[in-house]
Amino acid sequence: MSLITETRLKLGIASWPAVALTGKERSWLEPLDPPAKPPCRRPQLVAAASPEPAELARFRALETEAKHRAPARPLPCCGRVRSSRLRLAAEATRRFLPVFITGDREDGTLLYLDVAPGASAHVVLLTLASEAPVYVDVTVGENAHLQLDIVKCPGHDSWQLLSWRATVGRFASLIHNSVHLDSSAYQVGQAVLAGEGAELTSRSAALVESFEEQRIDVTVSHSAAHSRSLVENHGVVQDRGHGFFAVRGRMPQAAQAGDCRQESRFLMLSPRAEAHCYPVLEIDQFDVAAGHAASVGGIDPETLYYLQSRGLGEQDAQRLVTTGFLSPAIHQIRAGSEGGALVADCLLNSLAERI
Amino acid sequence: MKPELIIERLTCQIDETVILRDLDLTVRGGEVHAIMGPNGTGKSTLAAALMGNPRYTVTAGRVTLDGEDLLARTVDERARAGLFLAMQYPSEVSGVTNSDFLRTAVNARRPEDRPMGLFPFRRRLAEAVAALEMNENLPDRYLNQGFSGGERKRNEILQMLLLEPRIAILDEIDSGLDIDALRVVGANLTRMVAERGEEMGLLLITHYRRLLDHIRPDYVHILMDGRIVRSGDMELADRLEREGYEWLREELGLEHISDSHQEAHQ
């Protein structure tokens, strides 16, 4: 059985069609079980032209902070990349579409994800044992709604490199969640709120195990009036792990009446754990609301006392706080669609095993 | 068996400041006690010391619950023995839903091989939410996160309804409650006291008599200067409401210590 089939069955999402991008091919996977859902029009999945190095370079994070320690593995902007384009047409209901990215290969993967105006979709990008760089370029059309979740399937050791860019149109919204529960990862996200009233909600959950490193870097540019964004990163760092969150909110003149919020928090489970937060706001407009919060610390003793006063043993209380800390992103995946709920349940189980 | 909490000559301090001195009090199942007193006299300290808050150090005295030494036990052991404290400032816990938390807490006091099933639990939770006139989405909200002051207090009572303690201490449960919320909380407490009868003893810590209009205490104690200086019944609370604490200070020959001075000690 192929790795993808195995994972579809394990997650319980085999009755949904899926997209597979492997080292050898791009393919549309039909439901394995008789489809529980009424058959619907298949999204268009085609080959796209290989990107020029200049285009790949745009996926790199804006390293504006001099204090940054350089990533252990920077995002490459040359080398062979296989490009695909996935077009999601307008449909009446919210659709769940898993996209599997897998394969031990050297070629990178570039996926253009175009969401047509007025469409509504829940795309869950599941990466499996994939060390080659992944680039995702998203366009959310006017009045469209996309939930794009990036999940590194737990249980496969790999150093994940991923960068997503998104352009969100007028009155469109993008909800993004990323979940990394093991291994090392470097993930860059760049969102441009290009149209009036565009919205972004981005949440990350990072469980950094011993001797691993996870870096999440998010930039939101408010290029239009009345745009809103919320970036919330939560990380738990175990002994000798290293966590890193950088979030940049950019509000130029055009960001009038915009709202830009960010929060980066690390929960440290050992004195030898290391974490860095870089909260940055660049504001060039008076008429905006913006805020940032960042924290690095252990479990609050008052919280432990409160939970213990209800009869939970110290370890159970710690476990509850720690899993809860990483849950908001997973809960949002669950809220995205029926299929998302199944993926979220697997992630919560996997989290419980690791804490 | 009727629960029995016996506090003997309890002395307690935070950092270097002694807050409780030789305090004696006994609470039995079926009794409702109210502790009143001016600000900064140690009411909340008593609650925290009984529950085992690590910030407070008990330096002398003895506390037993059903004959077992309470002070030798950890916070969670005290809770599982049947002690419950509705806190004045409950913590927020992000990512942990009320439902997940309460189910863990309910099952923590049941034998490991006999946890309460999901459906019986959800039914009981829904009943308690309805009884407290709380929002139906409460079970799926994160524990106390984004709750108003009144919602937090109701959530403490909700936990008490589900955990069925033997001795419950309510630390200023009336502060931050509006009139309607106070009525709902009072009605639930009264019903619980009636239903559980001698299985539960209740200790109310309050500044104001208004809570006692909703749940009538059998005993009223006045805590001043770290000890109980006067015990009586509801008439004592009525007199405090009319005359304040000054007469008592004079009778006892206590110096008037300003609130701000005492607060600085806390």
- Return the CATH topology of chain B: Rossmann fold
What number is the mean pLDDT of chain A? 91
Mean pLDDT of chain B: 91
SSE sequence of chain A, one letter per element: HEEEHEEEEEEEEEEEEEEEEHHH
What's the overall geometry of chain B?
globular
**What share of the residues of chain A lie within helices?**
10-25%
**Largest pleated sheet of chain A:** 10 strands, mixed
Distance between the termini of chain A: 30 Å
Number of strands of chain B: 12
Q: Write the CATH homologous superfamily of chain B.
A: P-loop containing nucleotide triphosphate hydrolases
Rg of chain B to the nearest angstrom?
Answer: 18 Å
How would you characterize the overall build of this protein?
The complex is a heterodimer of chains A (355) and B (266). Chain A is an alpha/beta fold. Helices cover 17% and strands 44% of the residues of chain A. Chain A has one domain (3-35, 43-300). The longest helix of chain A is centred in the C-terminal third of the chain and has 23 residues, at 314-336. Chain B is α/β, with parallel strands linked by helices and 266 residues long. Chain B has a single domain (4-94, 164-265), classed as P-loop containing nucleotide triphosphate hydrolases (Rossmann fold, 3-Layer(aba) Sandwich). Chain B is 38% helix and 27% strand. A six-stranded mixed β-sheet of chain B has the order 6-9-10-3-11-12, with helices on both faces. In chain B, a hairpin with a 2-residue loop joins strand 4 (56-65) and strand 5 (68-69).
Quick gist of this model?
The complex is a heterodimer of chains A (355) and B (266). By secondary structure, chain A is α/β, with parallel strands linked by helices.
Ordered list of secondary-structure elements with their pairings:
The complex is a heterodimer of chains A (355) and B (266).
Chain A: H1 3-11, E1 18-21, E2 26-29, E3 44-47, H2 53-57, E4 81-88, E5 95-102, E6 108-115, E7 120-128, E8 134-140, E9 145-152, E10 160-168, E11 173-180, E12 185-193, E13 199-208, E14 213-222, E15 228-237, E16 242-251, E17 258-268, E18 274-283, E19 288-297, H3 301-308, H4 314-336, H5 338-354
Parallel strand pairs in A: 1-5, 4-6, 5-7, 6-8, 7-9, 8-10, 9-11, 10-12, 11-13, 12-14, 13-15, 14-16, 15-17, 16-18, 17-19
Antiparallel strand pairs in A: 1-2, 3-4
Chain B: E1 4-14, E2 17-28, E3 32-36, H1 43-51, E4 56-65, E5 68-69, H2 75-80, E6 83-86, E7 93-97, H3 98-108, H4 118-131, E8 142-143, H5 149-163, E9 167-171, H6 179-196, E10 201-205, H7 210-214, E11 219-224, E12 227-232, H8 234-243, H9 246-252, H10 259-265
Parallel strand pairs in B: 3-10, 3-11, 6-9, 9-10
Antiparallel strand pairs in B: 1-2, 1-4, 4-5, 7-8, 11-12
Helix pairs in contact in B: 5-6
